[in-house]
Structure formats: structure tokens, C-alpha cells
Amino acid sequence: GQEVDSEISNQLVGLIVYLTIEDKTKDLYLFINSPGGWVIPGIALFDIMQCVPQDVHTICMGLARVMIHQPASSFYQAPSLEFVLEAEELLKIRETLTEV
Fold first, then answer.
1. What is the pLDDT of residues 18-60, one digit of tens each?
2. Cross-referenced SUPFAM superfamilies, in alphabetical order (predicted)?
3. What's this model's pTM, rounded to 2 decimal places?
């Protein structure tokens, strides 16, 4: 599997939009085999799945279970002001994930 990053997320969002335009009546099936990745691109995928009119079925395979985790950060590399801003952003992301 491949990690979820901005590139693969953008490709999948585009594909879901394309398939929706082609036929709004056919359900979509998304097979996920990923060891994890970035939270924001993952949320983008979740958002598009909520926006399309057809049902989106997700089938998790392999390491997909590790995609459900707390968001992580690298605080030690940031100056103190950035540390505070990043902490606030992490809390917002965490709240978003708990609502999913």
C-alpha cells in the first residue's frame, strides 16, 4: 500500500468527482490498503465521500487499520510561536477526526 499524501488524495478526489459526473446512480467502492499518511489529505477524501450523491463503500485491506490514529506533529523543530499555532491546529484536527 501507499501512504496518503496530497498527491494521491488529489488524484482520488478527482477520480471520485469524475465517476460521479459519469453516473450518479452507481455506488462507488474504495479499496484502501495504506499504512497511514497525512491527516489533511485523508480528511479531503472523507469530505468528498460525504459530498457525492451515491453511496461510497470503503473496504479496508492490509494495513488500513493504522489510518485511525491521533494526529502527530514535530514540535521539537518549531520556534515557540509556531509551536503554539501548531498545537492549536492539532487540536482542531483532532476534533474533526473525532467527529468522523
1. 999 999 999 999 999 888 888 889 889 999 999 999 999 999 8
2. ClpP/crotonase
3. 0.72
Assigned C-alpha cell, 86: 501548531
Task: Work out the angle at residue 50's Cα, subtended by the Cα atoms of residues 90 and 23, and round it to the nearest 5 degrees.
Answer: 145
| Residue whose C-alpha cell reads 469524475 in the numeric block | 18
Q: List where CATH 3.90.226.10 sits in the chain.
A: 1-69
> Distance between terminal CA atoms of the chain?
23
Distance CA 3, CA 7 (A): 10
CATH number of 1-69: 3.90.226.10
